[in-house]
Amino acid sequence: MKNYLLLLISVVFFSCNTSKPDTAPERFDASSGKGLIIGTLTFDGDKPQNDIYRFFYEATSGDKKFKKRNEGKIMIKARENNVRAFTGDFNDKRTYLFVIEREPGTYAFTSYNYLNHIGNNGMVNYSTRYAIPFEVKKGQIQYIGEMEFMSNAIKGTPRIIVSDNSARDLAEFRKKFPQINWDNTINNTVKSGDTGDGLVEFR
User: pTM, whole model, 2 decimals?
Assistant: First the structure.
């Protein structure tokens, strides 16, 4: 029964509303009906401590249908050739670009979880809730910052640090997604929100 439950958790972990961190539309400009939110996820250390990380965001405005339609997550699979390894876009593969295309409204990253081992013995660990807020605006590209995940954070210190690395990050977006005009990006690095009792730090 225990093994069945763990297997079920693993299946749900992989299958529910999965989105790649680096997905970008083929075309986006001021006439687009949705908006783009971009930023980066960076991990500390030389090697990931877990196999999969998921960072959840949700709409904080609109009705139930709007919220359900626009909820999502960024999933990082930190494995390569069946061993733990960072697979990001730059910075020794520790930094991942992310692009979120959503309907206009207010949103927030609210929680994360991670799977410490793929397979029957894997355990999912969940964070407390916090809020890294952002607003999606029609036809606009907004950079909301770098979210650095501190795997080695000790108890009582921040696990996620939000800061402005726009000059570095936008150069990487231009390289990877040349079909989009990133010159029109607005820097709206998040400076405040719900820290989740110190889980998040805004710089």
Answer: 0.88
